[in-house]
């Protein structure tokens, strides 16, 4: 069956276009061009195929004037664009053929593209998946973010340590981006606020003595799958407002010009590489206000091009705040409505509180954004006045509901104790607050945000995260995608719930064999990647047991590696014990200043070094740390995984989305009852996952009683004792026995009063080791494993970001689908 859109893709035109681009861009023939040059030429040819659809879509939005969502996010972890664009144009087959005819391998060309890594991890990738789903479902949407000159750092491993290398992703230009200086916006920082009373007796607030930067938008096309829709991701670059005119400067002007130039240079220089951690850096607040002010100004300007009455703004625009990072949008919108459109406070408030909606991504206190008043008011003097007034009115409201209850004010005020609390601002001023998995939302309502929930229960809802199957199955795992389509047709590409039709194949032996054969081929592909990038040989017949995600103590990579140390101890003591060969695969970046996280990377590599080179265990265990975990190699890793390690301390992982990508590719979850794992197990059935560890209720109960005593476990469990002693006796650090002592101390600190093992690693160790035994036993049952793996795929339909987006649309945004007119 040939797809309609595939027919509409002009293969010969594309071929000519590639050859022409190579010639005009580089004055070369195809034979002379480098792979990077061919990548550029191919990308421009694909962009040509996108641009008409992009214009048509935007013209249609202009004509139909639908309500739009602006997804405001500090992070968009997009990965590579070329392969995804080809797939969503439904042009993969003709493009692959055309390139073959030109003597070029499509995969080698895709490999030339640097990842657009404008994000840290799950939060940024969620934004990217949402854009894909919005376009595919035909919803009018803008992504708004920052065009960081340097994205997430590249990770190198030297001597087992992480080295951070700058990610100069724009080095060769970005063929898909469109610079649009005609839509530049000015963003002002600092100075002071003057009040002028005009002839009508109205107070006009004016920011003066400020420094400003020009925000220049760059637009990236977001191609919907097979529907002709192309939405826009708008990322903002910063430019100085004026260039030097040296002669005409007096000293003060000169100083100011230099400062403004530096402000522009610094502001978009680099993505902060912290995941789930607030560092309170001034430049970070500048980044936030920079892209928010530009985006809100642009949204208002766009609205006013077609509408008269700004008081109806919320009927056409909604802002979704991806965590608290964009929360300053609330005050910025108030400012524009009052100071530039002369709305009264009440009018502006009515609009703002119907425009802004907030997504909470974490309950961990170290991640909550709280800006010191001094910093906030100095940088954003007018915005701060508005936040103060929002706070004043909100506190008054609390007092009315809870008269005399100062405790409520202390816990709920937006400004308290010298700090501006961004989550409180977002909740008080938005029309919606959502968590990202059922368990997470319940914890928010019962614990962290309980007071807010009690005061405004109707604002709260759950929107369990999702992922796009177009990237993480159709593009990342073409063998499995083809197998699925062969059996149940291709509808799953835009309706993932169709995968339930695969259930009938779970017990079909031929299907099981085909399925496991595909997994085996994907394991060979990953083994080749590992050999090429790590120089380690791994056996694709071994169990691929994988933990890839940001390195964070709550995610408990330390539990995983301690257990590997334990397994190795057992194998050394009992060389003949039954043991199914296992390849433990890690991938994780640590924030540059996160000591224990970086030390965990070193430990993983040190343990790997020892085990991988110990001939006495006959290669039964291999430990691989994949350098530079990112979206492009993630696609290869998920496709090749047997076991999905989702072992966070229960209650700490808001949702997780890596867990969903593994499931979609037929890996079996080894996890705690945390985040979306709970819903994964609910979908696939307990018998097709391996669950262990404390429940979130148990963890929270311990925490409320000041933790637990890890010494008890140390004293009573000799396996645990042995691996802990190996952390401090030089087993994995001959030349420096104290190297891993900080990790030991984090688990067992008996000296100081600081709490030990706050992530319950030792508490869950035994349960984890038992669960790992179950994994091995399950894998030995080949048919049983294949059955479970197929059922995981078959039951993963809920976890499409298409489902998530439909829920946001129905419950929060209230958008209509745009239908494109039929082409003549
Ligand atoms: C999905 C994804 C994540 C999030 O993984 P979690 O396991 O949910 O933390 C992080 N990084 C990349 C590159 C991803 O693709």
UniProtKB/TrEMBL annotation:
Its EC number is 2.4.1.1. GO terms for molecular function: glycogen phosphorylase activity; pyridoxal phosphate binding. The keyword Glycosyltransferase applies. It is an enzyme of class 2 (transferase). Its cofactor is pyridoxal 5'-phosphate. Keywords: Allosteric enzyme, Carbohydrate metabolism, Glycosyltransferase, Pyridoxal phosphate, Transferase. The modification N6-(pyridoxal phosphate)lysine is found at residue 661. Phosphorylase is an important allosteric enzyme in carbohydrate metabolism. Enzymes from different sources differ in their regulatory mechanisms and in their natural substrates. However, all known phosphorylases share catalytic and structural properties. Allosteric enzyme that catalyzes the rate-limiting step in glycogen catabolism, the phosphorolytic cleavage of glycogen to produce glucose-1-phosphate, and plays a central role in maintaining cellular and organismal glucose homeostasis. This is Alpha-1,4 glucan phosphorylase. It comes from Kineothrix alysoides.
């Amino acid at each position: 069956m040939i797809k309609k859109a595939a027919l509409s893709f002009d293969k010969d035109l594309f071929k000519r276009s590639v050859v022409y681009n190579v010639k005009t861009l580089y004055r070369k023939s195809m034979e002379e061009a480098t792979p990077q040059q061919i990548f550029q030429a191919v990308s421009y040819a694909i962009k040509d195929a996108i641009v008409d659809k992009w214009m048509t879509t935007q013209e249609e939005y202009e004509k139909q004037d639908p309500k739009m969502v602006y997804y405001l996010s500090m992070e968009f972890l997009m990965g590579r664009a070329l392969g995804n664009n080809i797939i969503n144009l439904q042009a993969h087959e003709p493009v692959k053929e055309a390139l073959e005819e030109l003597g070029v391998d499509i995969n080698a060309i895709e490999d030339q593209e640097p990842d657009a890594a404008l994000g840290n991890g799950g939060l940024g990738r969620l934004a990217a998946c949402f854009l894909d789903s919005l376009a595919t479902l035909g919803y009018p949407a803008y992504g708004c973010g920052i065009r960081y000159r340097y994205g997430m750092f590249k990770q190198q491993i030297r001597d087992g340590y992480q080295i951070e290398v700058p990610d100069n992703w724009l080095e060769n230009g970005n063929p898909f981006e469109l610079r649009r200086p005609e839509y530049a916006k000015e963003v002002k920082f600092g100075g002071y606020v003057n009040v002028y009373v005009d002839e009508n007796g109205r107070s006009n607030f004016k920011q003066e003595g400020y420094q400003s930067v020009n925000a220049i938008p760059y637009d990236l096309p977001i191609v919907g799958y097979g529907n002709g829709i192309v939405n826009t991701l708008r990322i903002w670059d910063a430019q100085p407002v004026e260039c030097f005119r040296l002669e005409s400067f007096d000293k003060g002007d000169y100083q100011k010009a230099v400062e403004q130039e530096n402000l522009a240079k610094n502001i978009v220089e680099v993505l902060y590489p912290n995941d789930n951690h607030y560092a309170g850096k001034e430049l970070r607040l500048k980044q936030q206000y920079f892209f928010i002010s530009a985006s809100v100004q642009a949204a208002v300007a766009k609205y006013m091009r077609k509408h008269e009455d700004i008081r109806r703004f919320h009927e056409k625009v909604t802002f979704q705040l991806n965590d608290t990072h964009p929360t300053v949008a609330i005050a910025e919108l108030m400012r524009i409505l009052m100071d530039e459109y002369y709305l009264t406070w009440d009018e502006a408030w009515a609009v703002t509180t119907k425009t802004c909606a907030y997504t909470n991504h974490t309950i961990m206190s170290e991640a909550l954004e709280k800006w010191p008043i001094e910093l906030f008011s100095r940088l954003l003097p007018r915005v701060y006045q508005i936040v103060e007034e929002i706070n004043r009115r909100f506190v008054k409201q609390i007092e009315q509901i809870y008269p005399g209850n100062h405790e409520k004010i202390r816990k709920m005020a937006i400004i308290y104790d010298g700090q501006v609390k961004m989550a409180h601002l977002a909740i008080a001023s938005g029309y919606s607050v959502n968590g990202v998995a059922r368990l997470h939302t319940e914890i928010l309502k019962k614990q962290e945000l309980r007071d807010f929930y009690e005061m405004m229960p109707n604002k709260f809802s759950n929107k369990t995260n999702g992922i796009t199957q177009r990237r993480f199955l159709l593009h990342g795992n073409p063998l499995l995608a083809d197998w699925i389509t062969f059996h149940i047709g291709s509808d799953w590409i835009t309706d993932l719930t169709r995968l339930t039709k695969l259930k009938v194949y779970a017990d079909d032996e031929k299907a099981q064999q085909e399925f496991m054969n595909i997994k085996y081929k994907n394991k060979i592909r990953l083994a080749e990647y590992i050999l090429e990038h790590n120089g380690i040989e791994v056996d694709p017949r071994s169990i691929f047991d994988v933990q890839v995600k940001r390195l964070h103590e709550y995610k408990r990579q330390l539990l995983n590696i301690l257990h590997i140390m334990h397994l190795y101890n057992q194998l050394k003591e009992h060389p003949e014990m039954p043991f199914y060969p296992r390849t433990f695969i890690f991938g994780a970046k640590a924030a540059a200043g996160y000591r224990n996280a970086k030390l965990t990377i070193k430990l993983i590599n040190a343990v790997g070094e020892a085990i991988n080179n110990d001939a006495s265990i006959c290669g039964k265990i291999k430990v691989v740390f994949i350098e530079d975990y990112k979206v492009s190699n993630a696609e290869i890793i998920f496709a090749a995984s047997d076991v999905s390690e989702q072992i966070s301390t229960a209650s700490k992982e808001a949702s997780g989305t890596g867990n969903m990508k593994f499931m979609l590719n037929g890996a079996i979850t080894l996890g705690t009852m945390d985040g979306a794992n709970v819903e994964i197990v609910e979908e696939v059935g307990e018998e097709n996952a391996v669950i262990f560890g404390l429940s979130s209720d148990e963890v929270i109960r311990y925490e409320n009683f000041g933790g637990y005593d890890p010494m008890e476990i140390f004293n009573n469990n000799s396996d645990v004792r042995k691996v802990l002693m190996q952390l401090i006796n030089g087993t994995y650090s001959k030349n420096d026995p104290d190297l891993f002592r900080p990790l030991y101390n984090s688990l067992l600190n008996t000296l100081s009063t600081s709490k030990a093992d706050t992530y319950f690693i030792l508490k869950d160790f035994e349960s984890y080791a038992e669960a790992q035994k179950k994994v091995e036993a399950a894998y030995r049952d080949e048919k049983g494993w294949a059955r479970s793996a197929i059922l995981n795929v078959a039951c993963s339909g809920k976890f499409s970001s298409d489902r998530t987006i439909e829920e946001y649309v129905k419950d929060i945004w209230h958008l209509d689908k745009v239908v494109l007119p039929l082409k003549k």
